[in-house]
Structures are given as C-alpha cells and as structure tokens.
Amino acid sequence: MALLDLYRSLGIADERISNAIQGASGFPVDRLAHVGVHVRQQNRRYGEKGEPKIVVTATALVPPQSPQGAWSLLGWSSTNPVWRPYRSAQNAFHSRPYPEPSAESTSYRQKWDGAADMVERALSDLVDELDGIPYTVTVDTQSARRMWDGLPNIRLGEQPKPTGGDGNRSRYRLPGARLGADAPEAVIRLNTEDEEVPQPVSVTHLGKKDGAEPVEKDTSTLLFEVATDFGTPVWLLCNVPRAYDGSGAGRLGSKRTRWEAEKSVQSEDRSKRRKGEMPQNFYAMTATEILPIGGPSDEAREALAAMTARLCHQTLFWSDRARYPVPLHAARQMDLDHPQYRREAVDTEPGTGDEEEATE
Q: Biased composition, Basic and acidic residues: where in the chain (predicted)?
C-alpha cells in the first residue's frame, strides 16, 4: 500500500487506469481528460488571528495520443496556478504555505466567488494544455456547493440569471460554464456524506429467467441507477467496509443494528455463555452518489457514471476501493499531505465508510 501511494505521489498512472476507464458504451470516455477539483476551508485555531484560508487543488488525468500509450497526470494548486506534471505540482504546492485570504474579498460571498473565478482561469489554462481534447470536471458537492450555484438539487436544470445572482448566491453556476466552447463536456457531482446519501441495507437480485425466485443478499459493491423527481437519474455506488470483507464470516451489522444488539449472558454452563454485542464493532454498507450534470445524451451520462465508479474501484494508492475517483482523490491528497494541513483528524481507512471527517 505504501509503495502504491508512492506511485501516486509521483503521478504514475499504469495500465490499471487505462483498463478501468475503457468502457463498453458508445460514448468515448477513454478519449476525454478527467479533471478533479478539491476545495477546502481551513479555519483558524483558537487564539489565531486572520480570516480562514481557502485551499484549491486540481488534477487532470489526460489520455494518451495512441491507444497503447500511458495516461498522464497533471497537477495545479492555488499557490502555484500553473499546470505541470503531478509530482512537480505537488512539490511546488508543498514548498509554500497556504495562501492568505485576499484583501479585496470583504464578504463571504466575494471570498468564494473569488475561489470559483480562480478555478475558471485554471480550466481555461488547461484547455490550452489539452490542445483540443475535451474534458470533464469532478467535484465533491459538500465543499463545492458554496462556490457553484448549480450543484444543489434545488438548482439542477435552472437557467442562470442574467445578473448572475441576488447577492447571496454564487455568480458561477458550474465549473467552467463561462468558458463557452471550452466548457467541460459534463460536471460530475459526488456526494459521500452519510447524512445526505441513502444507506444501502440489502440487495435483491431478480432472476433473468421467467419464474426465477428473487435472491436476497446482505451486501453489494455494484452501481445502481436511481430515478429522481428532478428528471436526471442519479447513480449510487455501494461500498462494503474492508473489515467486513476480511477473513471470518458473520460480521455484526449484516442482519441487525445496535438497537437489536444482544446482551451478554453469564452462566456456569460454558455452552450458554455469550459476549455482549453492544461493545463490538458493527459494520454497514455506505454509498457514493454520482450525478453527471450536462453531457450530450443520456447514454453519455450513464457512461460517465460508470467510468467514475470504476475510477473509485480501481485506485492509484492502494489495493481496495476509495470513496473518490482517481482525479479527485489525487487533488485531495495534495492538500492532505501539505505540511500545514490540520492533522487532528485524518481518514482512518479510505473507502471503508468509517473515515472521520478531516478537520477544517
């Protein structure tokens, strides 16, 4: 695992990534560049002075010129706003402190509009680097919704106002939306927040043959399409904790929750003794919500959702699944590895659903 993460820090994308991106649909996701934009606000500690700092990092997974070639990984950061190979971009980002707040941004709205404008300029510069290759942008809705007004469910499909907002809303609808012909093919919105994403509890497999009985299963790692009330379907990628999949069967949480935990039983008869279930670990599935916004067709959005799920399943940095696809994880990891990153709470095990939220 440490060796794989070292490869990630060097920006090495081997054939695993090429195999993961290749799909069976008619939409050529393997001929697109895939950009991940990570945004975070680091609040000041108790006793510190000054405004909170906004950190923006981005990566671009660029396809090779020939089908047999290797994918390349570019990096960008708000402290060094130049696209360069990922390893160089990460080193340049880590060699400088987090950017100080702009003196021109006096309000909350101006601060986040300034960050969104910075991303617009970064995508405009990337278009020159890609030299005609179309691209997509992936963002985490929890951190990015305050920068782009078109990400929340209530704004999906809403046309932007000519004035750009009412003062409280962002002037930017989606990443790259103001670039005209250079705008991304689609924006892929990810949500891993357990309070907002439905939790899978079981899976029913319907037989393909007539008269086949449905089969109930406790867990699944598949991608499911879910119909919504706003027209565009959303996809849920089910995740099973790594500890649940480990050696040994009968993990607690597969049949019942802690509300139904059995009490301990003490008896002189050894066969009747039983440990209490309440203090033991319970495991449950989690889900990653994937919503492609835009795109030329329903087939394209389905292909982009499947590609995003495969890039969560096939990671650069370890042998298991992650909650974020490769471009967004690589951008996020640039920030997490920075010397000034707050390390009071870090991810315990990526992809398990047991992670703690990083302290802002």
A: 257-271, 337-346
Hey, what are 78's tokens?
A: 């708000």
As a whole number of angstroms, the distance between CA 290 and CA 309 comes to 8
pLDDT in tens, 18-39: 888 886 678 889 999 999 999 9
Question: Tens digits of per-residue pLDDT, 146-186?
Answer: 899 888 877 776 666 654 445 667 788 899 989 999 999 99
128-132, 203-207, 253-257, 303-307: which has the minimum mean pLDDT?
A: 253-257
pLDDT of residue 342: 76
pTM listed for this prediction: 0.84
Q: Which residues are registered as beta bridge partners of 186?
A: 136, 294
Q: How far apart are CA 212 and CA 207, in angstroms?
A: 5
Tokens representing 325 are 């696809």
What is the full DSSP assignment across 92-141? Answer: HHHTSPPPPPPTT--SHHHHHHHHHHHHHHHHHHHHHHHTT--EEEEEEH
Q: Which two tokens stand for residue 1?
A: 């695992």
What are the residues whose beta carbons fall under 8 Å from the beta carbon of 46, sequence distance 6 or more? Answer: none
Structural contact between residues 324 and 189, judged by C-beta atoms closer than 8 angstroms: no
**Which helix or strand (DSSP H or E) is residue 4 part of?**
helix 2-9
The segment with the largest mean pLDDT, out of 196-205, 227-236, 291-300, is 291-300
* Alpha carbons 30 and 37: distance in angstroms, whole number: 19
Structure token digits, residue 5:
């993460």
Residues 90 and 335: their CA atoms lie apart, in Å, by 9
The residue ranges of every structural domain in the chain are 2-190+295-336
Locate the DSSP E strands across the chain. Answer: 33-42, 53-62, 72-77, 84-85, 135-140, 186-191, 203-205, 215-217, 223-226, 234-239, 286-294
